[in-house]
């Protein structure tokens, strides 16, 4: 097993390299880079994308001005000295060819140097560490609650297949699955965060303003008070999927011959379910653990963090993409990729933990 883990860890290196190559290449073709952003702001034009989407007389006038200046590289750069533009390019490293910039970036990454944000006076590492607790809180608690509730419920539904309990719980699960996470988040805010009904939970943030002055127990209670609604909103879709997956997996195993043989030997139903069926049925459920965690951590974090005003990695990545803050974009991408790859390895280790008969060490990679 140790050799298999080592091979998987070594395989992460080319995988990460490939992810960075693809995304770095894509950014070379995206308009509105950091230089254009700064130029547009200095010219009082707000967001640079207004220039790309401009139309009518205003757009024609801007185009004519750019032609007169003889500089088509940066819209709105007329009036700024070329020396200033050249200094910006040198400051951000855009005076070098793309290949050289990429190699320099990867060399710095090998030394855990992710650079500094273009538009914030803080290093990317400090920025990621500052935002990490919010996203980890959402991802870990949502995944944990989904598994703690969905697995027992799915097993119960499989045992009671076709009963009234199975019918009404399936109806509730389908309704929960049909509700988008962001819509459920808004509903929670309206109902329980002082929107129109009860003010039971805070409207925004991960902790209160006076969190530092609270006692240890007070800090814990305050944290859970703030995280309740975001976690519920993040869990709703994964809860439905995982419950049905667990039920169907157990139903498939219960119908197999080894279960009939175990019952014929006089084993109790509990022993049959948790001593024989569980480890076989849970393999497919455990296989979905990385995907569930990553989907909550990455996919749902942007919307949930925005709705509940949580300053996490998802929101950070979105704002960096809009502002073309490349060091932050690639820094968060690197963190997301590493977590996703590590979760894949954790999934394999959990396979072995649930069913020791599985031996990844004998597999060819």
Automatic annotation (TrEMBL):
Signal peptide: none
Record keyword Plastid present: no
Transmembrane spans: 9-26, 134-155, 167-193, 223-246, 281-308, 328-354
Xref: CDD domains: TM_PBP2
Domain (ABC transmembrane type-1) ranges: 132-351
Subcellular location, record wording: Cell membrane
Highest taxon, organism lineage: Bacteria
Main location: membrane
Keyword list, A-Z: Cell membrane, Membrane, Transmembrane, Transmembrane helix, Transport
Keyword Transmembrane on entry: yes
Membrane topology: Multi-pass membrane protein
InterPro entries: MetI-like, MetI-like_sf
Matches recorded under PANTHER family: INNER MEMBRANE ABC TRANSPORTER (PTHR30465), INNER MEMBRANE ABC TRANSPORTER PERMEASE PROTEIN YEJB (PTHR30465:SF66)
NCBIfam families in the cross-refs: PRK15133.1
Family as reported in the entry's similarity comment: Belongs to the binding-protein-dependent transport system permease family.
Full protein name: Microcin C ABC transporter permease YejB
Record organism: Acidimangrovimonas pyrenivorans
